[in-house]
Amino acid sequence: MSTHQGRKKVTVPEIIAMKERQEKIAALTAYDYLTGEMLDEAGMDIILVGDSAGMVIAGHETTLPITMDEMIFITRNVRRGVKNSLLVADMPFLSYQTSVSDGIRNAGRFLKEAQAEAVKVEGGKAVVELVDKLVGYGIPVMGHLGLTPQSINKFGAYKLQGADPQTAGILKNDAKLLEQAGAFSIVLEKVPATLAKEISQSLKIPTIGIGAGPDCDGQVLVSHDMLGIFDKFQPKFVRRYAEIGTTMRNAFAKYVTDVKKNEFPSLDESF
């Protein structure tokens, strides 16, 4: 039984208001109906359908291969479980970089076909025109700065961003540009905590940190990481709240053993 069934629907203005009243914003990713429902019942403020699905769901080495149609399918499934949390869909690689019109069309698909309530785009100055247009057309946008996984081939590795004065300055400027373009929040990924604090304090819109220290206005993690399901690598910034992967492996192995030994099903489990 949820303790949050009576809570209000979380909206974009409510997310901004949470920063104003200094209430931390809790966000996690979801890729299926049941997880969406559980996160919603837990009182999650934002549920992000991340393009991280390309890795934790589809098994790719990066987020790049996942397609727009796949993201629509996943978002639509999550939507069915979400009642009160704000549902944000990640714009996958090449769904918006090719042109502003492509970005508008694909962002609109998320709202129209999957009933997402906002989209997330990676990048700073390069996406400002798109953000401005989307917001003008009534499509709320969450920004994403710092380590932007879709740029992995440019970065060469999933490494800390903004660690030197030049790149820190670019990040601070990009954050301001995104705010001016109308973004309602910005994810800061894998940037120094001091820089994230400075950026957070400089903006009226909330920052959502992932590996960006405790002074962001909210936090997000990949659910499969914090549950201990996805364990190919464990970033420093991930706190493991469970070891569900180990539990699943043990359960599957026990099932195989029981079937092989004819210990399942028992007479009590038969008709």
General description of the model:
With 271 residues, this protein is an alpha/beta fold. It has 2 domains: 229 residues, TIM Barrel (Alpha-Beta Barrel), CATH 3.20.20.60; 29 residues. The protein is 41% helix and 13% strand. It contains 11 helices and 8 strands. The chain has an 8-stranded parallel beta barrel with strand order 1-2-3-4-5-6-7-8, surrounded by 7 helices. Helix 9 links the parallel strand 6 and strand 7. The model has no long low-confidence stretch (mean pLDDT 95).
Kindly report the CATH topology of the largest domain. Answer: TIM Barrel
Query: Span from first to last CA?
Result: 32 Å
Q: How would you characterize the largest beta sheet?
A: 8 strands, parallel, barrel
- Biggest sheet strand order reads 1-2-3-4-5-6-7-8
Question: What is the top-level CATH class of the largest domain?
Answer: Alpha Beta
Strand content: 5-15%
Number of separate structural domains: 2
Named at the architecture level, the CATH assignment of the largest domain is Alpha-Beta Barrel
Helical content (DSSP H or I, runs of 4+): 40-55%
SSE topology string? HEHEHHEHEHEHHEHEEHH
- In CATH, what is the homologous superfamily of the largest domain? Phosphoenolpyruvate-binding domains
Q: Structural class, from helix and strand content?
A: alpha/beta
- Write down the overall mean pLDDT: 95
Please tally the helical runs, counting DSSP H or I stretches of 4 or more residues.
11
User: How many strands appear in the DSSP assignment?
Assistant: 8
- Shape annotation: globular
Task: List segments where confidence is low: pLDDT < 50 over at least 5 consecutive residues.
Answer: none
